[in-house]
Input
Amino acid sequence: MKKLFYYLFVSVVLISGSVFLHGCYPDDSLSYSETDVALTGYYDSVDFSTLRTYYMPDTVYPFRDDTTDKTPVEGQELILSEIASNMTNYGWTRIAEDDTLHKPDVMLTATAIVTTTVYVGWWYPYYPGWGWGWPWYWYKKSPRETNYWYPGYPGYYPPGWGWWGYPYYSSFTTGTLKLDLANPEDIRIIDGDTVVPLYWSAALNGILSGSSDEVRLKEGIDQLFEQSPYLKHN
Amino acid sequence: MKKNKIILTIVFLATFSISTFAQGGGAWNFTYNMGFPIGETNDFISKPSFRGFLIEGRGFVTNNFAVGGSGGWQVFYEDFGWVTEDISETATIHGYNRKYINAVPLMATGHFYFFPANLQPYVGLGVGTYYIETRNYMGIYYVEEDAWHFGLAPEVGLSIPFGNNSNAGLTVNVKYNWAVKTQKTSGQSWIGLGLGFSYLF
Output
């Protein structure tokens, strides 16, 4: 009897030991939409009430591992129209690129990022050179002020943005839609680099389901604006 | 490294417990454990845990006093659904939030039995370590913290043998699990309720 209990004890300890080395994570399955995370941040020394007009290129810039792949991002029209309608709802006026009478206050760009599997990273998809030094790819030139619209300066996250330093872990192939609001004329020199501070940056990240889900994409974009009430003018 | 520590601790506790056989008389307890979060644990996850177990070996060194070791596992989990949180003064995150705590107490124990007879009420104290891993998920992303915490576990309990000549019985105990904070992680605490079987020898 003693032996029986001894063996029982040992086997339970060994089995449980091997299980708990991996931890127990019940109910950790998610639907595709439940993997979506919306993250937004703003530069707190910007007075958004003075900014009312924006220019948005009619292309979602694709950021892929294969940099030669220039095919348009799936759902591009939907993405841009949803962003534009949210901006309109918040009281912004979109300036077209051929408008020679008005110069927009800021530029809003959309980038679609497809990341390969990330095992351990920071909350924001970890790319060497991102954050403080990722290059702006201005592929649209303003007919009037070419120099302004094609600076090629890195985007700069001003101090106090605060989402850096969040060690997140993930092992999924994800897609990210990133929106950046900046004034390309607001040029700063930071540590010897010429940069443009981002006034507002938003990221919508989730597992790529293979089929584009319009509702999921629209709700995600709406959420980015919903949690950024400081952009609202009305 | 972490695995080595865990395995060594288990081996130590197992041999420590087995050595008490030699003293003549003791008990093995196998309990199903529930955990009710309090303090900082309650701030993180308030939902009670119904996933837990504990195995204990005790050997009597006097008529009333037993020493031994215990090891177990308690899993806390709560689904917070869609949440929007400010992660700094200027940054906001929105996502599907789930939180987990995996806690593994490994203790050396001492128990005092008031009436070592048919009904056996006892008080006890465990001293040792809690290995605690917490995860805070936003969608597929999570922040993980893990640490070995120094911990104490004062306890009151009752063993009820099935009959005069039976060497098996029921056992029930209430335990205050207290894992002190570490340099990088906060403290954790919960009230544990254990129900199970005793094998007396």
Chain A is about 20% helix and 25% strand.
